[in-house]
Amino acid sequence: MKIGSFDLVKDGTYIIAELSANHNGSLQNALDTIKAAKEIGADAIKLQTYTADTLTLDSDKEDFIVKGGTLWDDKKLYDLYKEAYTPWEWHKELFQYARNIGIDIFSTPFDKSAVDFLEQFSPSAYKIASFEITDYELIRYTASKMRPIIISTGIATIEEIQDAVDICKAEGNSDIILLKCTSAYPAPLEDANLLTISNLAQTFGVISGFSDHTQGSTAPIAAVALGAKVIEKHFILDRSIGGADAEFSMDKKEFSEMIQAIRDTEKLLGKVDYSMNEKKQKNRQFSRSLYACSDIKKGELFSEENVKSVRPGYGLHPKYLKEILGKAANYDISFAEPLKKESVSW
User: Fold this and answer.
1) Using alpha carbons only, what angle is made at residue 102 by residues 98 and 106, rounded to the nearest 5 degrees?
2) Using CA of residue 168, residue 208, residue 49, residue 4, what is the dihedral sign?
3) Helices 252-269, 27-40: crossing angle, 10 deg rounding
4) Are residues 265 and 284 in the same domain?
5) Tens digits of per-residue pLDDT, 7-60?
6) Spatial CB neighbours of 119, under 8 Å, sequence gap ≥ 6
């Protein structure tokens, strides 16, 4: 499966820098963030495409006031989204700029009108946000565009995840990636439950990954070690810019270090390999083998007094020790001489 030109099977981990609200209302900040993401080696930059009106109602009623111990408690939903959104008139320039400098770009649509708007840019994928996984009609409509669809599972039941997968497949779209996600901002480490990543792939027959809201890079690095093929993390030029997502976003230095650690982790994981490569073969000189630990005359019987398993590894394999005990030497063998198969009268 590919996202743009990136092959999720062959090319390693697809690392997404989430722009989100981290432009803080400045188009130049958005462009500079895309440039920085490219410079540090991110594979993609991701936008969010909504307006306050496509997400919620302009209401002061209690239901529409943020609460629950979040970073945004006591704010009106409408005001929060109005502050955080990426203006739609920026999208053309952002898509063109990202493509000109060679970084993939796509977005999270939050309603059908956003999907229709984004289609003009031929995005390489679509992302369904955690809180939209229950919007089955949005999933259906997005999947029908036949682009890879990345779905965060943060607030979903296992039945709702199955529903989302089934909806995509019913539209003929099997290019599905499910992201383990903890929908808390920032997310506590103890709520990450990264073992779910491989289970998502096994249970639903899809590629799985991790959308991370923890602070630091420990969680995404561990996620890659556990099989995540996609990592998504909020990215900001500098937290001093401020904005709705600044507190749980990584700056350029932190994101760069995370990418390097992920690439190092990929090298460490390697592949299942039991072959005897040149390095292994060379290092066998330091393994044990059978040597004469005293002079042995021709016809003398091998015993634990005159044969020993020692380093280096130029002699007979130690597995033959019990087999040769009591057998005769074929020729004179001097102290510290390696035993060979021809040394033994089998």
Assistant:
1) 45
2) negative
3) 30
4) no
5) 999 999 999 999 999 999 999 999 999 999 999 999 999 999 999 999 999 999
6) 145
**CA-wise closest residue to 42 among 217, 267, 262, 283:** 262
Same domain assignment for residues 148 and 295: no
Identify whether residues 224 and 308 lie together within a single domain: no
Q: Which domain, by its residues, includes 316? A: 278-343
The beta strand positions in 167-217, using DSSP E, are: 176-181, 207-212
Task: Give the model confidence (pLDDT) of 258-317 as tens digits.
Answer: 999 999 999 999 999 999 889 898 999 999 999 999 999 999 999 999 999 999 999 999
Residues 213, 170 share a domain:
yes
Residue type at 300?
E
The CB-based long-range contact list for 245-253 (8 Å cut-off, 24+ gap) reads 245/20, 245/21, 245/22, 245/84, 245/185, 246/22, 246/24, 247/71, 247/185, 247/186, 248/71, 248/185, 248/186, 248/187, 248/213, 248/214, 248/215, 249/18, 249/20, 249/22, 250/217, 252/36, 252/39, 252/40
Which structure tokens are listed for 241? 């810019």
Q: Of 241, 269, 297, at which residue does a domain stop?
A: 269
Same domain for 298 and 337?
A: yes
Measure the CA–CA gap between 211 and 216, rounded to whole angstroms: 13
User: Has residue 323 been placed in a domain?
Assistant: yes
Report the number of secondary-structure helices (H) and strands (E) in the chain.
Answer: 12, 12
pTM value is: 0.89
Q: Residue 16 forms beta bridges with which residues?
A: 44, 232
Please answer whether residues 47 and 19 qualify as being in contact, where contact means their C-beta atoms are separated by less than 8 angstroms: yes
Answer yes or no: is 175 within a domain.
yes
| CA-closest candidate to residue 52, choices 74, 72, 82, 80 | 82
> Do both 218 and 325 map to the same domain?
no
Residue type, 48: Q
Q: Rounded to an integer, what distance in angstroms lies between the CA atom of residue 182 and that of residue 194?
A: 10
* Contact (Cβ atoms closer than 8 angstroms) between residue 124 and residue 177: no
* Same domain for 257 and 213: yes
